[in-house]
Amino acid sequence: MNSKFETLPVRTKFFTRGTTVVAAIAGLGIAAYLYRVFFGLEAATNLSNAYPWGIWKTINVVAGVALAAAGFTTAAVADVFHRERYHVLVRPAILTALLGYTFAVIGLIADLGRYYNIWHPIIPSMWQGDSVLFEVGMCVMMYLCVLYIEFLPTVVERYRNRVDLPGVLAHFNSLVESLLEVCQRYLVRFISLFIIAGVVLSCLHQSSLGALMLVAPTKMHPIWNSPISPILFLLSAIAVGFPILIFEIILVSRIFHRAPDVSLLSHLARYIPVLLGIYFAVRIGDLTLREVWPYVLDGSFPAAAFIVEIGVGVILPLLLLARKRVRYSVRGLLISVILVIVGVVLNRTNVFLIAYEPLYASSRYVPSLIETAVTVGLISTLILIYRFFVVKLPVLPRPPEPEAVSPGQAESLVTPMKGE
Amino acid sequence: MRKDRRDFLKMSAAATGALVAGAASAAETPVTADFSRAYGVLVDTVLCVGCRKCEQACYLAHSHCKKDPESLLDRTVFEESRRPDECAYTVVNRFVDPDRPDRNFWMKAQCMHCNQPACVSACIVGALTKDWRGPVVYDTWKCIGCRYCFLACPFDILAYEYNNALDPQVRKCTFCHERMAEPGFRPACVKVCPGGALTYGTREQLIDLALLRIKQSPEKYIDRIYGQHEVGGTSWMYLAGVDFAKTSLPEPGDQPISSLTETIQHGVFKSFVPPLALYGLLGLIMHSLKDNG
Q: How far is A300 from chain B (nearest CA, A)?
């Protein structure tokens, strides 16, 4: 591996005061999850026959998968289009995607009434080619496998010829060693094939997520009931990929007291207004062609939700990131990418919850305490596992040499978090 | 409305094609089976007297919840509008004709057993199927409990056993399909109906019967058979004395609900050409840019 792209484990201890707080929230989430498993959906959620899908599907699965788009967008830019300078960001992006998808599946299991049947779509006798959900399920499953393979080089690099398991497990050292050898020989060498497969699978299911609600054309609010919804979902997923990555890198730099590579992030951020602009233009064209502007201006709750989604989540970051000054300031970058992320989460929530208008509902769906606790708990657990991985494995880029950052610049870039 | 949807189909097919490097060909028209010989039920709300015996008979035929069968004949429930739930596959509601407030009419609600059911198209594992004889049948064993069928159903008729932590099922009218092969079969509700409001027969026979009733008593009936064309036709159909807009039945249009999603699915996955083409294209880019980086 070229030393220019070197990634290293972060040298820090795992538990700090901040980590303990996150762990406590994760613990509450796991308790809420167990409550659902033992007492059922009625006790744990506010789901009903009128509102069969709640935040577990919308936030944990649909929005979670959208925010995990960092994986395939970064792999596409760095590996497929060979923009080599971004190569150093591939590992954090793949790890984000890997954890994002894994937790989407864990969140989905909480939501499924018969979760022990989750493997059924794999069985050929139950394949259902008409179903959008079948395609999403199969692609997500295959992409999850691809992500684990894409992450393998990181594990192999760290532990090959260095396996040293503690205690009794030491007997398995040579077995694990030969397993890593097999991975190196048969998977890592052909990694390009998997990288392309990851991009194709992502394009397929990111767009298909947008087709899911088209199965309810008579119950969807006109603003979001677009036949090109699959394309809008794909475009917004591509647009949110780099913002998530930039958000993550800046956050991690602050937590580990490092200066982020501003020039690299700012360069990457140039793509965002372009991608966001394409999404915005297609969205406006779609609304205009379908003649649904009157619904946007009717002052209703869905109309307000739409205006916030587009205004805060698309137009504002578009205007901000179009300015070079914003792209080259860490704070400006951070605020802008948070807006893009919020915008995509609002869009998914609007499509799956706000736009869905059941025929005989007496009141709107509002998530229960347990539902919220599970969602927040899963996100906290994800953060903990992320920390564990970056401490143990060479995921994050080597921090810049002290002389690479001028003293004044470093001061303005790093705001150490108290309690670390 | 229908023209709009056709345009949407064209637009989406074209857009999907562009998405996957222009490899998607024009969408296929779904093959529409002829359901005239399939069985169905005609619900004549002009003849219905609101006795709730169909509700009771349905409970006795399927009873999976504990209830007092006598309570199912209590007519005070008409004070509130009800929906079928996990314990009641069918419910009767009372409506008032706004033009003649002195007159009530009643309407039974249950699964419509669509000819081209959106729930069947949506189901991820094929747990819902359309029996060629008419019923839309649910297979508990296959079901994963995702409730996507609930979103797809244009009549919002499905119910879930949310209170069951281990073995929850989707509950809906079964059309008593488990007894359908028996000689002289009629669904439990049809068998018990005292006023002739429910008639079991082939779709063809039922449409003829409905047309005859409308022709013989045009003063009693609205000239429309609800379910003849709605969402591509349904096995259960309704006659009414008032405009259907004044009932709780929705107006989902005549196009099968799943036509758009099926067009997209089949367009993208036609012989797997579009995904493979994208794979090839990306591979080519990856290879040709290799040394320019």
A: 22
Q: Is residue A419 part of a domain?
A: no
Q: Where are the domains of chain B?
A: 39-246
Q: Is B168 on the interface with A (CB under 8 A)?
A: yes
Q: What is the pLDDT of residues A97-114, one digit of tens each?
A: 999 999 999 999 999 999
Examine the predicted complex and report whether its ipTM is higher than 0.85: yes
Task: Give which of B220, B211, B196, B239 is closest to B54, Cα–Cα.
Answer: B196
Residue A166 has a pLDDT of 85
More confident residue, A5 or B281: B281
Closest-CA distance of chain A to residue B13, Å: 9
Mean residue pLDDT of chain A comes to 92
Q: Concatenated DSSP letters for chain B?
A: -HHHHHHHHHHHHHHHHHHTTT---PPPPPP----TTSEEEEEETTT-----HHHHHHHHHH--S---GGGGG-GGGGGS----BTTBS-EEEEEE-TT-TT-EEEEEE----BSS-HHHHH-SS--EEE-TTS-EEE-TTT-----HHHHH-TT---EE-TT-SSS--EE---TTGGGTTSTT---HHHHH-SSS-EEEEEHHHHHHHHHHHHHH-TTTS-S--BTSSGGG-BSEEEE-SS-GGGSS-----SS-TTHHHHHHHHHHTGGGHHHHHHHHHHHHHHHHTTTT-
In a domain, A414, yes or no: no
Give whole-number Cα distances, B201 to B37, B134, B190, in Å.
Answer: 9, 10, 11
Question: What is the span of the domain harbouring residue A217?
Answer: 3-397
Of A287-296, A313-322, A392-401, the range with the lowest mean pLDDT is A392-401
Q: State how many domains chain A has.
A: 1
Cβ–Cβ below 8 Å for B144 and A214: no
Q: Mean pLDDT across the stretch A62-91?
A: 95
- Residue B292: what pLDDT? 59
CATH of B39-246, one of 3.30.70.20, 2.60.120.10, 3.40.50.1820, 1.25.40.10: 3.30.70.20
| pLDDT at A378 exceeding the cut of 80 | yes
Is B49 a residue whose pLDDT tops 70? Answer: yes
* Inter-chain touch B147–A53, beta carbons under 8 Å: yes
pLDDT score recorded for residue A100: 97
Q: Domain for residue A415, yes or no? A: no
| Separation in Å, CA of A245 to nearest CA in chain B | 22
Is position A402 within any domain? no
Pick from B143, B159, B260: CB nearest A227:
B260
**Considering chain B, what is the average pLDDT of its residues?**
88
